[in-house]
Amino acid sequence: MNGTAGHRGSEVLNRQEFVRFAYSNALFEMETARLALERSRDEKQRRFAQEMLDAHGQSAEELRGLLRNQADLRSIQPPEKMADQHQPWLGQPRTAQGENFQTLYAQQQAQAHLIALDLCRNYAQAADDETLKRWAAARLPVLQAHLREAQALKGGSP
């Protein structure tokens, strides 16, 4: 995943693109959290990983529920797998071990949460779908907290 994670900076995505990226981000967070639970020896990082697994699993379920229950959103399907922009970021954690994994996981989490926060903030402020705007706005405090925790894992701010 590059610095923009495939989204277009401050441009607001359409509903389908937003759902695809938000859901793919949740899948990425859950997959890397599982890897951290398997590979990290750092207890703080393992607690963070479990929190990410739980929180992003809940977030994905909430988004699926909105898509299933809101008539104007039923035509949008969440992706079955991670979007292409998330795939490259999985290669390194899958092969890294020990401290290399721990450092990489902390760096990726800080960057991924910064990108997700930017995406949700932009969507909450400027999108035209009120249901998804509310969902994105509700994610902001959670993403801000996750970003602070991820920055603490890597030893500072981005």
UniProtKB/TrEMBL annotation:
* Pfam families given in the database record: DUF4142 (PF13628)
Describe the location of the DUF4142 domain by residue ranges.
Answer: 15-153
Top-rank taxon, per record: Bacteria
Q: Which PANTHER family match?
A: BLR2558 PROTEIN (PTHR38593:SF1)
Protein name per its UniProtKB record:
DUF4142 domain-containing protein
Organism for this UniProt entry = Roseicella aerolata
